[in-house]
Protein backbone atom coordinates (compact mmCIF):
# COMPACT_ATOMS: atom_id res chain seq x y z
CA UNK A 1 0.00 0.00 0.00
CA UNK A 2 1.37 3.40 -0.97
CA UNK A 3 2.09 5.95 1.75
CA UNK A 4 3.57 9.42 2.03
CA UNK A 5 5.63 10.71 4.94
CA UNK A 6 4.98 14.42 5.40
CA UNK A 7 4.71 17.12 8.00
CA UNK A 8 1.52 17.33 10.01
CA UNK A 9 -1.13 19.86 8.96
CA UNK A 10 -3.87 21.50 11.00
CA UNK A 11 -6.35 19.84 8.63
CA UNK A 12 -5.17 16.42 9.91
CA UNK A 13 -6.93 16.87 13.27
CA UNK A 14 -10.07 14.89 12.33
CA UNK A 15 -8.17 11.91 10.92
CA UNK A 16 -5.77 12.00 13.86
CA UNK A 17 -8.71 11.66 16.26
CA UNK A 18 -10.27 8.98 14.05
CA UNK A 19 -7.23 6.70 14.21
CA UNK A 20 -5.59 7.67 17.53
CA UNK A 21 -8.73 7.35 19.66
CA UNK A 22 -8.35 3.59 20.03
CA UNK A 23 -7.51 1.78 23.26
CA UNK A 24 -6.07 -1.17 21.28
CA UNK A 25 -3.55 1.23 19.78
CA UNK A 26 -2.58 2.83 23.07
CA UNK A 27 -1.98 -0.48 24.84
CA UNK A 28 1.70 -0.06 23.97
CA UNK A 29 1.99 3.71 24.41
CA UNK A 30 3.21 5.68 27.40
CA UNK A 31 0.51 7.03 29.66
CA UNK A 32 1.14 10.55 28.34
CA UNK A 33 -0.88 9.63 25.25
CA UNK A 34 -4.46 10.53 26.14
CA UNK A 35 -7.36 8.13 25.79
CA UNK A 36 -9.94 9.12 24.81
CA UNK A 37 -8.07 11.13 22.19
CA UNK A 38 -9.99 14.33 21.48
CA UNK A 39 -9.95 17.04 18.83
CA UNK A 40 -8.24 19.30 21.37
CA UNK A 41 -5.50 16.66 21.87
CA UNK A 42 -5.02 16.42 18.10
CA UNK A 43 -4.78 20.18 17.62
CA UNK A 44 -2.31 20.51 20.51
CA UNK A 45 -0.11 17.75 19.09
CA UNK A 46 -0.17 19.23 15.57
CA UNK A 47 0.76 22.68 16.92
CA UNK A 48 3.72 21.15 18.76
CA UNK A 49 4.77 19.23 15.63
CA UNK A 50 4.61 22.38 13.54
CA UNK A 51 6.65 24.37 16.07
CA UNK A 52 9.71 22.09 15.77
CA UNK A 53 12.66 23.98 14.28
CA UNK A 54 13.44 20.97 12.11
CA UNK A 55 11.07 18.20 11.03
CA UNK A 56 10.92 15.63 13.84
CA UNK A 57 7.30 14.47 13.62
CA UNK A 58 5.83 13.04 10.42
CA UNK A 59 2.32 12.07 9.44
CA UNK A 60 1.82 8.80 7.58
CA UNK A 61 -0.62 9.56 4.79
CA UNK A 62 -2.55 6.88 2.93
CA UNK A 63 -5.23 7.72 0.38
CA UNK A 64 -5.08 11.41 1.31
CA UNK A 65 -5.64 10.80 5.02
CA UNK A 66 -3.21 10.94 7.98
CA UNK A 67 -3.51 7.41 9.43
CA UNK A 68 -0.51 7.34 11.75
CA UNK A 69 2.69 9.02 12.76
CA UNK A 70 6.41 8.51 13.23
CA UNK A 71 8.78 10.80 15.01
CA UNK A 72 12.34 11.38 16.06
CA UNK A 73 13.36 11.95 19.67
CA UNK A 74 16.84 13.53 19.74
CA UNK A 75 19.12 12.44 22.55
CA UNK A 76 21.43 14.78 24.45
CA UNK A 77 24.80 14.92 26.13
CA UNK A 78 26.79 11.67 25.77
CA UNK A 79 23.95 10.09 23.76
CA UNK A 80 23.85 12.92 21.18
CA UNK A 81 24.86 10.59 18.32
CA UNK A 82 21.72 8.49 18.90
CA UNK A 83 18.10 9.12 17.95
CA UNK A 84 15.02 7.35 19.26
CA UNK A 85 12.02 6.80 17.02
CA UNK A 86 8.43 6.23 17.99
CA UNK A 87 5.64 5.27 15.63
CA UNK A 88 2.06 4.13 15.28
CA UNK A 89 -0.47 3.43 12.58
CA UNK A 90 -4.24 3.12 12.77
CA UNK A 91 -5.60 -0.35 13.48
CA UNK A 92 -7.19 -0.80 10.02
CA UNK A 93 -3.64 -0.74 8.60
CA UNK A 94 -2.05 -3.27 10.96
CA UNK A 95 -0.49 -6.41 9.50
CA UNK A 96 -0.15 -5.02 5.97
CA UNK A 97 3.63 -4.39 6.00
CA UNK A 98 3.18 -0.63 5.78
CA UNK A 99 4.95 0.20 9.03
CA UNK A 100 8.09 -1.73 8.07
CA UNK A 101 8.38 0.40 4.92
CA UNK A 102 7.70 3.58 6.91
CA UNK A 103 10.42 2.70 9.44
CA UNK A 104 12.91 1.94 6.66
CA UNK A 105 12.17 5.32 5.07
CA UNK A 106 12.46 7.25 8.35
CA UNK A 107 15.79 5.54 9.09
CA UNK A 108 17.17 6.84 5.78
CA UNK A 109 15.86 10.34 6.57
CA UNK A 110 17.38 10.20 10.04
CA UNK A 111 20.83 9.16 8.93
CA UNK A 112 20.85 11.63 6.01
CA UNK A 113 19.63 14.67 7.97
CA UNK A 114 21.07 14.25 11.46
CA UNK A 115 24.61 13.80 12.71
CA UNK A 116 23.89 10.43 14.32
CA UNK A 117 25.25 6.88 14.11
CA UNK A 118 22.42 4.90 15.75
CA UNK A 119 18.61 4.91 15.69
CA UNK A 120 16.74 2.95 18.33
CA UNK A 121 13.20 2.13 19.40
CA UNK A 122 11.80 0.89 22.71
CA UNK A 123 9.12 -1.79 22.54
CA UNK A 124 6.85 -3.49 25.08
CA UNK A 125 7.58 -7.22 25.26
CA UNK A 126 3.97 -8.10 24.34
CA UNK A 127 4.01 -5.89 21.24
CA UNK A 128 4.98 -8.65 18.84
CA UNK A 129 3.81 -6.65 15.82
CA UNK A 130 6.22 -3.82 16.55
CA UNK A 131 9.07 -6.24 17.19
CA UNK A 132 8.47 -7.79 13.76
CA UNK A 133 8.36 -4.33 12.14
CA UNK A 134 11.76 -3.44 13.55
CA UNK A 135 13.34 -6.81 12.73
CA UNK A 136 12.08 -6.68 9.14
CA UNK A 137 13.40 -3.10 8.89
CA UNK A 138 16.90 -4.31 9.81
CA UNK A 139 16.96 -3.47 13.53
CA UNK A 140 18.58 -5.83 16.04
CA UNK A 141 17.55 -6.49 19.60
CA UNK A 142 20.21 -4.85 21.79
CA UNK A 143 18.73 -5.00 25.28
CA UNK A 144 15.94 -6.35 27.44
CA UNK A 145 15.06 -4.57 30.67
CA UNK A 146 13.10 -6.96 32.85
CA UNK A 147 9.70 -5.91 34.16
CA UNK A 148 10.29 -2.16 34.11
CA UNK A 149 7.12 -1.14 32.26
CA UNK A 150 4.01 -0.88 34.39
CA UNK A 151 0.76 -0.42 32.48
CA UNK A 152 -2.78 -1.65 33.14
CA UNK A 153 -1.69 -3.24 36.44
CA UNK A 154 0.85 -5.46 34.67
CA UNK A 155 4.64 -5.43 34.46
CA UNK A 156 6.34 -6.00 31.11
CA UNK A 157 9.88 -6.10 29.81
CA UNK A 158 11.11 -3.24 27.67
CA UNK A 159 13.02 -4.28 24.54
CA UNK A 160 15.47 -1.94 22.84
CA UNK A 161 16.03 -2.43 19.12
CA UNK A 162 18.60 -0.45 17.14
CA UNK A 163 20.12 0.01 13.73
CA UNK A 164 23.45 1.63 12.98
CA UNK A 165 24.37 3.92 10.13
CA UNK A 166 27.29 1.68 9.13
CA UNK A 167 24.86 -1.18 8.47
CA UNK A 168 23.28 0.84 5.67
CA UNK A 169 26.59 2.05 4.21
CA UNK A 170 25.47 5.68 4.46
CA UNK A 171 28.29 8.23 4.73
Automatic annotation (TrEMBL):
This protein's UniProt keywords: Transferase
Keyword Manganese: no
Molecular function terms, GO-annotated: acyltransferase activity, transferring groups other than amino-acyl groups
Pfam families: Acetyltransf_3 (PF13302)
Record-annotated N-acetyltransferase domain positions: 3-166
Keyword Transferase: yes
Protein name: RimJ/RimL family protein N-acetyltransferase
Organism: Flavobacterium croceum DSM 17960
